[in-house]
Design brief:
heterodimer; A: alpha+beta; 6-stranded antiparallel beta barrel; B: alpha+beta; OB fold (Dihydrolipoamide Acetyltransferase, E2P); 6-stranded antiparallel beta sheet; 9 strands
Amino acid sequence: MTTLKQTPLNAAHRAMGAKMVDFGGWDMPVNYGSQIDEHHQVRRDCGMFDVSHMRVVDIKGEGVRAFLRYLLANNPDKLATPGKALYSTMLRPDGGVIDDLIIYFMSESWFRIVVNAGTAEKDIAWMKEQAASHAPNLTITPRDDLAMIAVQGPNARAKVWEAMPGSQELSENLVPFSAVEMGEMFIARTGYTGEDGFEIMIPAKAAPFFWANLAEKGVKPIGLGARDTLRLEAGMNLYGQDMDETVNPLESGLAWTVDLKSERDFIGKAALLAHPPARKLVGLLLTDRGVLRGHQKVHTAHGEGEITSGSFSPTLEKSIALARVPVEVAIGDIVQVAVRDKMLNAQVVKYPFARNGKGLI
Amino acid sequence: MSNPENLKYTQSHEWVRTEADGTVSIGITQHAQELLGDMVFVEAPAVGRHLDAREECAVVESVKAAADVYAPISGTVTETNAELDGSPESINQDPYSAWMFRMKPDNPGDVGALMDAAAYQAFVDSEAH
């Protein structure tokens, strides 16, 4: 048996009664009791997540922006103000998605990137390989010394300000999707729940202290179970489920993150232009009783599709899913999902399903 | 929560209670509900269906996952617990009251062959390793 990797908060999770699971090689809390209660806690008040398994990568040197213009499907030229963030995919030459990530523009010689835990090693190898031929003067540094804590929910920012003296002055004017440095910390108004809040990068050694401070202010810990239902309700893709190297972003609901308009060339662009998408990602709302799950087959009037993520939505109290289906499928269509030995009816809906405390369906 | 002494148990984590009328009630154990987490859906077998021992016959789904429920013994389904449709969370809250379905055993003696509380606990402990 291989040893699971631990975040700096591992002992804190155990002390708080977390149920720990193997999450892609990391020993992580799936819940601290009821996953549904944790989900509501974030929609209605706030909660904190240990997301230290995600990897921060700093790219520094002259010409970072030009390198990212070539590396990423979204256009870093959209970032004009230091601190601004951008969501993007990073593609293979054939258009397959290597990972999705967030880049923060700090200065013309420093961009910070946050990538997924399970893909971090391959991402960094890919970035270094591309830099070697296109921007050999850049340094690409994984920041294994940083922990990351997300505090999310309508009251999240106020709780962070209470728990971290001095943070309010710096971060209260942050617009959504932007970040500011605070000493060795980094406060970003981003998240993966569909609620307001912060994602905070902090030196690993200081993370347990900050986590304890938040807990003392009444912020409840939230496990990865609720993180998944929150992001699914918010209509946010999960790498490895909703997209991977075998599909392109245009077939994964991510066309809005791909800049095909500018003259800029980027890895994967030619493949995307050459192959108009035949499938697309849609939302499903189950109208029969049951629960939709990933990999279930979807039967439509235009051919077969497949659920990429499915679960029970605590906000809607119904089962919801993201599914990849033929492009001809339209909002409002009724489709059939194969669940064990039954065919259940589901309606094709526009997602997100819920955000900012409210169901949208 | 300990496993009640008056119930019988299976290796697939069902509990079985013999009722006064000779039918048996079936639910899932404390250990099973803990593993699965928050229940959101229960699908019980149809009344009148005959089940063989260890046959897949029902499904419980939590937010996290779906799990099959197996017939502990052979028999015919006589009743299902409709209350669970509206409140599947009662399986989490009180697993030994939240019965899923009842059966008339083909052979009432079969129940006696299932594990008692102590044997089931030893089995759960052994599975943890």
